[in-house]
Design goal:
The chain is of the alpha/beta class. The chain starts with a strand and ends with a strand. It contains 8 helices and 16 strands. Strand 10 (160-164), helix 4 and strand 11 form a beta-alpha-beta unit. It has 2 domains: 2-121 and 266-296, Medium-chain alcohol dehydrogenases, catalytic domain (Quinone Oxidoreductase, Chain A, domain 1); 125-239, 3-Layer(aba) Sandwich (Rossmann fold). Strands 3, 5, 6, 7, 8, 15 and 16 form a 7-stranded mixed β-sheet that branches. It binds NADP nicotinamide-adenine-dinucleotide phosphate. NADP nicotinamide-adenine-dinucleotide phosphate binds at residues 40-42, 123, 127, 146-147, 149-152, 164-166, 169, 183, 205-208, 227-228, 240, 242, 287-290.
Length: 298
Amino acid sequence: MKALLFAQYGDPNVLTVGDVPEPHAGPGEIRIAVRAAGVSPGDDAIRSGAWRDRVPLALPYVVGLDAAGVVDEVGDGVHGVRVGDEVFGLRFRGNTTAEYAVLDAWAHKPGNMRWPQAGGAATGIETAVRALDVLGVHSGTTLLLDGAGGGVGAVARGARVIGTASTPNHPFLEELGAIPIEYGPGLPERIQRVTGHPVDSAVDIAGRGSVEELVRITGDANAVLTLVNPAAENQGVRLLRFDPAADNSAALEYGAELVAAGRLAVHVAHAYPMDEGPAAHTRVASRHTRGKIVITVP
Ligand SMILES: NC(=O)c1ccc[n+]([C@@H]2O[C@H](COP(=O)([O-])OP(=O)(O)OC[C@H]3O[C@@H](n4cnc5c(N)ncnc54)[C@H](OP(=O)(O)O)[C@@H]3O)[C@@H](O)[C@H]2O)c1
């Protein structure tokens, strides 16, 4: 089958479309005929070699951590999904940007979600739900997202959301229902001036050194979560860790319900065909993506 892969670490130009053997669904897994796959900052880190020690790989390696498509194999012990169902989901070890991909966690694709949106939905939804759970975010609280314009930003559970982004992305955040504010030094004073709201919890999504200010804003290191910066744990801030043993499908099903109800939309900044994989990775590596970048298959 055709897949987007790299045989050596490096810049996005190491990506090529090549032929690899088809994968098959093992126990607890499903296989899909892929229609679209997401490109995440994690894919960029894997391809560049930045995570070489953390995630040892056998090369060549097929990129992609999430995808959407039509189920064509159902592994032993899997219930609630059948061949022919349309789903989106995650593959923890990657390999989703190909004609066929195996998924570890999935949800049915809502009818109002198009393939590109579904292909790029799973990592952002799963991360956002996990972050909201860890922080105990609920209706009536105020949540600050530092770096809200990318793939992980979230407005849900009735929380008031303040999101940081550069000025051109403020209308985008407003459309999502968040109060936009400029990122960078002086954030506590800006929030006080612009919103006047006390902030109950905060998420460091962008990982650009704001953790100290986020602790000042919430007044409690335990109310701050970082997605990116392990060093922040020295200040009592929690690092969001992925747990493959958790019920990750439940998070995706929750996201799918929000999408079906019109309460969550996955914004796709650009959809590239597979042979433009280097351009897709270059765009994600810029770290100024608005929403998600996806690759459509075939
Ligand atoms: N821990 C976990 O389990 C986990 C899971 C998923 C993702 N992650 C990590 O989460 C991070 C975010 O991912 P993402 O998909 O949202 O994409 P991303 O490409 O990192 O986010 C892009 C957004 O960051 C904003 N940004 C750029 N510079 C900033 C700054 N100095 N301060 C605040 N915001 C800034 C950009 O806004 P402008 O364009 O407006 O400048 C853009 O909207 C990645 O590093 C990823 O690896 C962690």
